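chain below, 536 aa
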Amino acid sequence: MIAIDGPFPDAQAADPHRFDVLLRGGLVVDGSGRSPFRADVGIIAGRIVAVTRLDDAGGAEVIDMSHRVICPGFIDLHSHADRNILEFRGAENYIRQGVTTLVCGNCGSSPTDVSTFFKQLRAQGTGPNIALLIGHGSVREQVMGRVDRAPTAKELEEMKRTVREAMKAGAVGLSSGLRYGAGAYARTDEIVALAKEIAPQGGFYATHMRDEGTRILAALEEALEIGHKAGVPVHVSHHKISSASVFGLTRQTLARIDRARRQGVDVTLDQYPYGAGSGSVGLYVPQSSLAGGVAAFRRRIADVQQKAAIVLAIEDLLVRKLYEADQSPADAEYTAAALTRIQIARAPHDTKLEGLNLTEILKSRKQPVSLHNGALLLVELVALGVRGINHTIDARPGGDVDRVMKHPQTCIASDGSVFGFGEGNPHPRSYGCYPRVLGHYVRNRKLLTLEQAIHKMTGLPARRLGWKDRGLVKPGYWADLVVLDTTTVTDKATFLAPHQHSVGIDHVLVRGRFVMKSTSMTGQLPGQPTRTPATD
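prediction:
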């Protein structure tokens, strides 16, 4: 635990000022990774203007921070908040985590008319600032539909034009989701062609790679190749090993990233701090079977031969993804444990399934818990558009989650969204990502120091975005700030009870205005679209 009593650093007291907001006597963790120091923070017109001792200064609002930490607002490089932010503008689940900027449009899915989207955001404001990646999959589907083929020359030009316009309108880069949806149908050269369009505006390429399991090394090489050929930085989204059979493979992926960086490649990554991911259960079927959408999938499984081939492919994937290296699907106990790794998050056709795993569903139907029956159940659920939680990440001490978190180029990111409180059974990361790191990994396990963790949430993602006026507690920077209690900050959301706000965050300011004050939401919506480089 960091002691927050002690002298101010050596610095000459500033001349008396009257600030809009004066945060007095807090322990400043400035986002750079350096040691904490005690200081007053003065804010005028939304900007930080002083970080020093301000004994004689006053302000419209002066708040005693002597037992609290002041740090930059957290910058979430990987969210899907674009889906609902226009409805839930306050983004309370993120503000209560200390997030002041949400980077949206990840995994290849985004609005494609960026200008209109930003206009809608500006019209009423938002709680946090919003940045946007233009999603390759959305662009592809808009131009080509959900088809499994290469684009024509005309279609590729139209896709390139859409990406160019998005960047000019303020997008910060290009994202891809090559594991599923329209993105899975794209070859490498198509992504390269579109990534070249973001280079003139200083954008970066963020990728949900083509594989995060047994074929992850090849997928990582593809990501690096795209960045090299397009001449843009590469950012690996939610880096993890999502196949139990190859837990530990991050030793090789991180070594490859280190080698690329030594060779001058600008590559970074992000991570959410959980042992499970979330997404459509359609990830478990061959992506070619989903070409044309769920309706086309239903037609395919109506054909006996096509359904049999799909089931066999699912069984092969489940063996690689759900069973650890020394486990056999012939063993009933291992199979029951393996199928518990897939939990239902949202099932619009039958909400009673939400929160249950495949083993529980099979048992409730009095069906044998077998690999084959698990595959058949997944076919049924995919046809119904169900979303799942996938407990296929090694979060045990010393495992892949720890290894990735400790890597110096890893940013903390949620991969979550905004939504109505209490709706469905979402992944708890949407409520608890950042406090989970600060509570579980910093205070309890001491895997990171406080200053390391804050750097991964602030200064490091700001550097990835090329921003020079966010991500640090520094004069001249926007006053996107968080005040927290290091002794109590923690996540409350769980996989079975996800709709629980985190605690330990006292105040959150966006552009110098309180969006949360003394743990209460203020209703203020000062957040605005934020470009690269940040010049707003």
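The radius of gyration is 23 Å. The chain has two domains: 74-276+397-469, 280-390.
thats it, cya
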